[in-house]
Structures
1.
Amino acid sequence: MFSKPTKSAPPRATGAPESSAARKPLPASLIGENVAVNGDLTSDGEVQLDGAVLGDLKVGHLAIGETGQVEGVIEAESVEVRGRVAGAIIARTVKLYATARVDGDITHEQISIETGAHFAGRSLKRTVAVQEQLSLVAAAE
């Protein structure tokens, strides 16, 4: 009479991976102004960089603050630069704000540069789709 009903686990398909929509979003990682990293940095999520990194970065989204500095190659989906970068940037979207100083090539699909930003290097359009089409044509022959 006073017993609790038993709860059954919801049915789950065996062997099926959980959907990415069910995954909890990761909080942004912060590298503070007083932090210096010597070495490569990798993250699937968002990184706010206010300190210094001497090494390569491979992240989902990178925001470099006014005090942030990178000396190395950056690979990301999107990059926002307010600080300094000495090295190449490879990203889908790149935004250089007025306080940015970038010395290196930028490979991108979209780029925006505010008045006052310093950029010394080449702006290279990312053409992944064209390379994939060429490999499909070559494979069909």
Note: The chain has one helix and 15 strands.
2.
Amino acid sequence: MLADATRVKLLWLLLDSESSVNDLAAASGKAQAGVSQHLAKLRMARLVQTRRQGSQIFYRIESDHVRQLIQDSIHHAEHASSGTPEHHRDAGNNVTPLPHTDPAHQGAPAATRKTKK
């Protein structure tokens, strides 16, 4: 489910609040029909939940576990690219050190870093 950029973008847009299909289509720059199809797949995979209000359906992240999965996936992808990851920058584009508990992170001593086998 996370291999498709549109689905990841939709999940990212839903991290902090629920949204309607129309709002998600506008925010993602995608057609409403395509967004609906992606959301249906995300719902079948139990990554999002729905709530009906009148004729509108609102989507939200299924759980805190899914929310953390999305955040970690995006942050990992940012670390894999060149430069300073976006989540390490503040509003003025300065590097903001974030505490990391994973010894595989760059700041850990070499002896404690995990290596890929």
Note: The domain at 5-64 is CATH 1.10.10.10 (Arc Repressor Mutant, subunit A).
3.
Amino acid sequence: MKRVTQAQVALHVGVTKATVSRVLAGAPCVLPETAARVNAAARQLGYHPDPMLTAVAASRWRGDGKRRGLTFGFISPFRHKRAGMDPENFAGAEARAVETGCCLDHFFLEDYRNSAAMQRTLLARGLRGLIVAPFFEAQPALTLDWSRFCAVSIGITPYQPPLHAVAQDSYDGTIMAWRKALDYGYRRPGFAIMLHALPTHAEDDEARQSAALFLHQNDRAPSERIPPFFHSIGDSFAAPARDFIAWYRRWKPDAVIGFNRMEREFLLHAKVRVPDQVGFAALTTQSDLGIAGIVEAAVDVGAAAVDLLQLALRTNQWGLPKKRIRHYLEAQWLDGPTLPRRR
């Protein structure tokens, strides 16, 4: 499909190409009624900026004369650590962008008065390719004019726009942890999985819950089945710990597959020795925790988001997709002392 040019938009509106260029770049020095007409015509004609020309223009404005690749924007809700895996996601995305000759700039929505203010900055800097980090809270809400951007998201939460997305495969990870426990010689593993009290991780929670229930019903003889234990965690540690220990003592699994190190803390709280008395693996772990389980692949997810964004740019996919693509990264297992092989 032939790309619509700024000159065609200018001819349609009856203004100069320079005026169209200023409006589409978000410059404030154009009459509001003129800007509205230009934006309406651009949407009607299906105009989208050429990413490579945008990169060249950005280099001109920098004034350094150096030819650089595309610059993408990475949008996070917050600067501080409650943003979850944001630093790792960004690190993976930045490294992958550099590998492919591009750049990545980090933007934090909390730094702006609202989404409109952020959008003006993005457009003024010529950024049209965006990666949206997970939004786990309703506020601040990200409400850009998506028709002006080519964007993908990391993760899938209720508070993110319905963009093409990259996420870790939580269902696959749950299956993998179960298979590893059996391969390592454990005969009666049991799931004890935390579910989030708020719908922040609804898709991941449902995937893990579905996998655990499927395995309970189909992968063991009835006499060996241990019903999964699902719990939520809030301000109180004592209540879920008490319920977990009651489940553990009732069913006596030889390995516990938990959500994270929380369930291991429950065992230690009850003076159950890991791994002497019971093996333990987590569905979300990291290499520095010393806990066997499924590795949080936040860096790999960030890198995959860059690849998906570049594909969307090459195929001219702007705005919110009519049919959403979800890319799930294969789970990765990490050995650890909490789940040794049984002889």
Note: The chain is about 40% helix and 15% strand.
